[in-house]
Specification:
Distance between the termini: 35 Å
Strand content: 5-15%
Largest sheet: 4 strands, antiparallel
Mean pLDDT: 95
Helix content: 40-55%
Number of helices: 14
Low-confidence stretches: none
Structural class: alpha+beta
Length: 395
């Protein structure tokens, strides 16, 4: 399922940024490659899921017998069998789901990699499982956030292009007369919910951080305004699930606890706090802060039910660090992007209207980096070494 791929890939991205371990980068790369190869619409949207069943049999597309491995892999078969722990009896209905059960290094030896490629080529001849080809706004936004962040951190131009293409697809196909819709299958259907809007705010901010294009901050700001207008609770805090322009229910639901995915209020709190740090928009900041303050006691008592909100709480309590890079300084941009800085936001490229850009009109190689907190900045960094020192000081 697309949402699982998006959220798991993000964990491996951050693990790699923190540790530098190749196995985490490998898992990130192979997860994103799967999404781009098997779950992407030709126009750039991401499909929802693939089934487990094919030809009426659960797992048939994915599993292997020992005889099949020998026949396909030849001289490499024994290495493949040992690496993936395949047996005559199997681990699923007398067949083998190939898995690396030994913890540690995931780098495949040459013989195993040759065998894997051969098995993949053979598997591609099989009848594929059913494809859920709905393009869901919320799940696409989650994947967009992950791919944009991963593209920036790794320097992958392929992933960056996929992120921008997906962002354009969403804007072109999931928005009708200014109103975001929930689902697309050739045409957009169902009014989007607050979780769709909250996920989009974060996604557009991350596309801006990856590209330096101010358009995506504008898209985030417009979506944030609509999130508050359509879903905001005028008598309390946070956002309802459905908008004021949707079906009028006996009672409007409001999700406060995170589940397998973050709830709308957690998405809104994180997205609005990060956006406000870049734009200086106080209504956005105040709306997000009210959500965190009201739910703080509940989150302290039951933290596992508020996993994503805890990031918003961290941003609320410790503040957001703003990084501004002026001029044409790809070296400084890369220095900032390659780190995992969960309490930081980045703006670069064409100067925007944010107060962060006031008086920072350096151009070309004379550009520099500013590390700020609530618009108050340290001395500018002219070199990657100086920026590295500023970023290390963030803690």
């Amino acid at each position: 399922m697309l949402d699982d791929e998006a959220l798991l890939a993000r964990v491996y991205l951050h693990a790699w940024q923190l540790t530098g371990e190749p196995r985490f980068l490998q898992t990130l790369q192979e997860t994103i490659e799967y999404v781009l190869s098997d779950l992407r619409h030709p126009l750039g949207g991401f499909f929802s899921a693939e089934d487990a069943d094919s030809e009426g049999v659960e797992g048939k597309f994915y599993v292997w017998s020992i005889d099949e491995i020998h026949a396909i892999c030849g001289d490499d078969a024994e290495a493949v069998i040992e690496w993936f722990g395949a047996t005559e009896h199997g681990n699923w209905e007398h067949t083998n789901i190939l898995e690396r059960v030994v913890r540690g290094d995931l780098a495949r030896p040459d013989a195993v990699e040759r065998g894997r490629v051969a098995l993949l080529a053979e598997r591609n001849k099989r009848i594929r499982p059913g494809l859920d080809d709905k393009v869901l706004t919320e799940w696409n936004a989650l994947m967009l956030s992950t791919i944009a962040e991963a593209a920036a951190a790794t320097g992958s131009t392929e992933w960056l292009e996929a992120a921008v293409t997906n962002a354009n697809f969403l804007c072109d196909n999931l928005r009708v007369n200014g109103r975001w819709m929930r689902s697309w299958q050739g045409e957009a259907r169902v009014l989007a919910f607050s979780a769709d809007y909250g996920a989009l705010v974060d996604a557009f901010v991350r596309v801006h951080e990856a590209t330096g294009d101010p358009r995506w901050l504008d898209e985030a700001a417009v979506t944030a305004d609509a999130l508050i207008e359509l879903f905001g609770d005028p008598d309390d805090i946070g956002v309802y699930t459905n908008g004021t322009d949707g079906d009028q229910l006996v009672a409007r639901p409001k999700e406060l606890m995170d589940n397998a995915t973050a709830c709308a209020n957690s998405l809104a709190a994180v997205g609005l706090l990060r956006l406000a740090a870049l734009t200086g928009n106080e209504p956005h900041r105040e709306f997000a802060t009210a959500i965190v303050d009201r739910l703080a006691e509940s989150a302290a008592r039951l933290p596992l039910g508020f996993g994503h909100l805890l990031l918003a709480a961290e941003l609320r309590v410790l503040g957001v660090d703003e990084i501004v890079i002026s001029g044409d300084r790809p070296d400084l941009v890369a220095e900032a992007q390659q780190r995992w800085l969960p309490r930081s936001v980045l703006t670069w490229g064409a100067p925007g209207s944010s107060p962060l850009w006031e008086g920072r009109n350096e151009t070309g190689p004379d550009g520099r980096a500013y590390v700020c907190r609530q618009m108050f900045c340290a001395a500018p960094a002219l070199t990657t070494e100086e920026l590295n020192e500023r970023l290390n000081a963030l803690g």
